[in-house]
Amino acid sequence: MNLKWRIGIILGLTVLSFWALFPRTVVERVKRNGEFVYDTVRRVPLKRGLDLQGGMHLALEVDESKGLVPDKSKAIDNALKVVRNRIDEFGVSEPLVQKAGNDRIIVELPGIDDPRRAQDVVQKSAFLEFQITDETQALDKALPRIDAALKDTKVAVATAAPTGNKDTSNAGLQSLFTADTSKKADSTKKDTAATVATTVGGPGAFSKLIQPGSMPGEYFVAQSDVSLVTQYLSQPQVIAALPPGKVIRWSSDTLSYGNRIYRPLYVLDAKPIITGEYLTDAKPNTSPTEGNLVQFTMNNEGARRFRMETARHIKDFMAIVLDQRVMGRPPVIQSAIGANGQITMGGKDLQAAQDLALVLRAGSLPVPLKIADVTQIGASLGKDSIHKGITAGIIAVALVVIVMLGYYRFSGALAVAALALYILYTLAALAGFSAVLTLPGLAGFVLSIGIAVDANVLIFERIREELAHGKTVRTAIDEGFRHAMSAIVDSNVSTALTAAVLYQYGTGPVRGFAVTLLAGIAASMVTAIFVVRTFYMIWLNRSSEAQTTLSI
Amino acid sequence: MFRILHDTNYDFIRWWKVMAAITIGFILLGLGSLAIKPPNYSIEFTGGTLMQLQFTQPPDVGEIRSTLDDAGIHGAEIQQFGSNRDFTVRAQNAAQVAAQARGAENIAVRIESVLKKKFGENSLRVIRTEAVGPRVGQELKRGAIIAILLSFLITLVYLSIRFEWRFATAAVIATSHDVFTTIAFLKLMHLEISLTVVAGLLTVLGYSLNDTIIIFDRVRENLRKGRKETLYETLNRSINETLPRSVLTHVTTFVATLALLIFAGEVIRPFAWVMAFGIVTGTFSSIYVAAPVLLWIERKWPRKTGARQSSSTVTPTSRTRRSPATATR
Questions:
Q1: Domains of chain A (ranges, CATH numbers)
Q2: What is the arithmetic mean of pLDDT over B191-211?
Q3: pLDDT (tens digit per residue) in A526-541
Q4: What integer pLDDT is reported at residue B315 of this predicted model?
Q5: Within 10 A of A154 (CB to CB), how many other CB atoms are there?
Q6: Is the pLDDT of residue B313 over 70?
Q7: Domain shared by B92 and B157, yes or no
């Protein structure tokens, strides 16, 4: 290959690399004042991993704690669509939602600032049911049986309450609006321990914790007793004693009477009159009288059913149940209701209404999901990592340059020039293949700067040997390159094979590391073998009389 | 021309028994200590919750611990992470991992809320949270082991093609040696085995293999020249001839590692430690494991007699790419 071609190729690669790395305008979807807008930003097209830009990684699995799911893979496929819809509306610039393996969904949300809200939106089942409150005083009739059942097992409850079971009660409470219940759950937990000591053991363990409310099927429980009642209700003996055909659901809100806070408990007809599957739209809204709410619309079939069912239940109270929680106080049915309805949010903010509308629109999750794995990295840590990584990189380059210049002089300078191209090409390759740059990847890149000169070192040492044998400069260079070649190829190929294995079996950051390593190997072979050779050729051609000494 | 270690003629391999004793001792020390106490696996492998917290004021570690204990989060490990305002909290024991199987986020939420209650809402920030279910960890562990074994297998095949099976086996044994010494090093340094450290280990393997291949490449070439010398002498000659290259490459790699170690921050430090050690063990194994093993294999399964003396082909797979220049040497 003649010199002109070589120079042309190097220039071409360099221009291509600059082009690949040139800051460009990209369209990003960002959320501004609660609205999704497309915005353009200019930035270097190097994708940073979650660990460098901050954000959240979630792995979701089917939650089988409430019953086995027969075909997990299919369930995950269906859930995937719902989760994707929700995330798309959530307004993250470059979200990733994908199936991993057979039974897992991976969600990556770069730059997310409110991880808990994100978890909530992803995980919320959003299963909407409309159920009529019980009119038959079924719970009142069942109370003696429940008390009796508890009396038999009170010892078990008393010992279990302070230590075990906390998490289950907690999880139950946290199924909705995790943010505020977590604090409540905390305070109630302490109270629980206290209540257990005083209440358990007396007669009517259950009945004395609840008092009838103002509508059929409504009961009030003091906020401090909520977790205890939840525990009682999860006892198998109590479940057996509950009235058949009815379900018991907590309200999502609390009420205060005087200085005491109560949480309503509702007894509902188990069969819902209609579910959220007919829902076609949901919008957040604010009403001066009812506060924040979500308005929804049903399709024709849903509207027909809803009209028919509500006509049968005029003057009854209808509970709007979302994920087994009664939203607001059940309204009385004045007349048949058609296609439109609304869910009041109680005291929740507009954000909560927006999120609820979002999950209702996106559809309910076909199976409950649990979070198997969550990583959340603050944006500041990511910035800090990049900053430190770059510092380390600059220092590494500086030290390598000193070593190379000090030891090989002029030839070292050629290697340093090639090293600059190496850095450029590697970064360009990463940008070109839209590889994700992670923190281990960054470390691998810094390390590769040290290793990249290995090929140069091999070649230079060979040239020195040839010169020592009395070869002319031109022959020594040719021979040096030729002899070093097999070692360079073999060592690089075997490293590349290892990197490929890493890529195949690694996850997340490690995969990023493997990609960086591969790009680095390719770039170092090009620069060390091809670029440095070309530099030598330029140098040899520069003057007409052959160069007689080589600084190496 | 400034040269180091030029035209040396050290008898490296003579010391192999001493070196074998040293490295076996080191490995046994590491493995023995492993038998007494299992290694520290990171959250990624064991499952559990790791939180990195930044406080506005340097907090009292004892106070953090007692707050967590009061909240029922027992046995959490609290460590300073960089400055005295940065801490990591690890909830990694079996009970916590089991609780997490029900939903990974719970413990992190609880830790944050109890600490904020204790120290004040704005007194700390959660910089990073990692919560991993036990299943994910198991899969990762298996993935890491498969990755290492598979990379060995691929290396074995590749080197068998490019060199021959004797060289390939010696190189893979030398590399396996590095796995053991690095594990011993991790244990003795109390470094946590994380995904990043596994990546570091694999890099070390690649690097060590590199080094072995460079020396073996010389051996291959010297054998082709058909000098009247034993393999022992050829190996020594090859190591000496590649010595300047080895030193220089190790120096440049080491300065890059040093930059990482000092400047790249806490998260990357374990990786940098592994790499720093890897440079040492990789160099060592190329000389004192690969070469003696190759000699041993050669004695056990010798090549066809006369092959080494013949100037044409040394091994069935090697290709003659000799230039006239070297032939006239």
A1: 3-22+378-542 (1.20.1640.10), 130-360 (3.30.1360.200)
A2: 86
A3: 999 999 999 999 988 8
A4: 43
A5: 17
A6: no
A7: no
According to DSSP H, which parts of A336-378 are helical?
350-362
Residues 348-377 of A with CB under 8 A from B: 370-377
Q: Order of strands across the sheet with A291-298?
A: A279-287, A291-298, A340-344
**For the domain that residue B70 is a member of, what is the CATH number?**
3.30.70.100
pTM (2 d.p.): 0.74
Q: How far is A181 from chain B (nearest CA, A)?
A: 11
Do B191 and B286 lie in one domain? The reply is yes
Pick from A166, A392, A439: which is nearest to B259 by CB? A392
Calculate how close chain A gets to B31, using CA atoms only, in Å: 25
Q: What is the pLDDT of residues B104-161, one digit of tens each?
A: 557 788 888 888 888 888 888 888 888 887 777 777 778 778 888 888 898 889 989 9
Is residue B213 within 8 Å of A490, Cβ to Cβ?
yes
Cβ atoms of residues A55 and A111 within 8 Å: yes
Are B24 and B53 in the same domain?
no
How far is B306 from chain A, CA to nearest CA, in Å? 25
Q: Which of B210, B217, B253 sits opposite A450 (nearest CB)?
A: B253
Among candidate residues A289, A531, A258, A504, the one with its CA nearest the CA of residue A418 = A531
Please give the residue that has the higher pLDDT: either B312 or A285: A285
Does a structural domain hold residue B326? no
ipTM attached to this prediction: 0.82
What is d(CA B178, CA B280) in angstroms, rounded to the nearest whole number? 10
Give me the domain span that covers residue B241: 12-38+137-319
3-state class (DSSP) for residue A220: strand
| The predicted structure's pLDDT at residue B250 | 92
Mean of pLDDT over chain B: 83
Examine the domain organization and report whether B54 and B180 are in the same domain: no
Whether A502 has its CB under 8 Å from any CB of chain B: the answer is yes
Token duo for residue A205: 């363990």
- Write the pLDDT tens digit of every residue in B208-250: 998 999 999 999 999 988 888 899 999 999 999 999 999 999 9
Q: What phi and psi, each to the nearest 5 degrees, are found at residue A70? A: -65, -55
The number of folded domains in chain B is 2
Whether pLDDT at B200 is above 60: yes
Of B115, B132, B149, the residue that ends a domain is B132
What is the residue whose two structure tokens read 């492998």? B45
- Counted across chains A and B, CB pairs separated by less than 8 A come out at 272
- Residues B83, B161 within the same domain: no
Q: Mutate which of B202, B261, B320 to disrupt the A interface (most A C-beta within 10 Å)?
A: B202
User: What is the SS3 assignment for A103?
Assistant: coil
- How far apart CA A389 and CA A384 sit, in angstroms, is 8
Residue with tokens 């794995």: A373
Across the interface, whether the CB atoms of B106 and A510 are under 8 A apart is answered no
Residues A430 and A46: beta-carbon distance below 8 Å: yes
Judge whether B290 and B212 are in contact, CB under 8 Å: yes
Confidence at residue A541, expressed as pLDDT on a 0 to 100 scale: 84
